[in-house]
Amino acid sequence: MEPLSVLKSRKKNTVTRLSRNSKIFKTIIKAIQDKKGENIVSLDLRKIPEASADFFIVCQASSGIQVRAISDYIEEQVKLLCEEIPYKHEGKQALQWVLIDYVNIVVHVMRPESRKFYRLEEMWSDAESQLHEL
User: Fold this and answer.
1) What strand order describes the sheet that includes 105-110?
2) What is the pLDDT of residues 95-126, one digit of tens each?
3) pTM of the entire structure?
């Protein structure tokens, strides 16, 4: 069993669950606030087994231009301050609902009509929600 002895000295990876105090979480909320996103709500999905992420952050913007400004600024700030890029983003063509997927946190920047139609907060009503004031 000589070859396995190397594993004993190898540094272990420690996985930390995200929380509302996580740097990426705070960076996203601040970026939305800086660009005047409205009705900012975070949904804590960690206790929901079917959830694909730890958190959803949902906000709305009054125009397509603001949707683009918020979503671009989120990506810029998270890359600058947290050194992370999104796994995927969707909706940057139509600018009605932009989704930015950071795997453990998924950000939804929505126009009021889309938010009212899709009602994400109702769909995930089992999640603990928190309003983030400007």
Assistant:
1) 88-90, 97-101, 105-110, 55-60, 38-44, 128-132
2) 999 999 999 999 999 999 999 999 999 999 99
3) 0.86
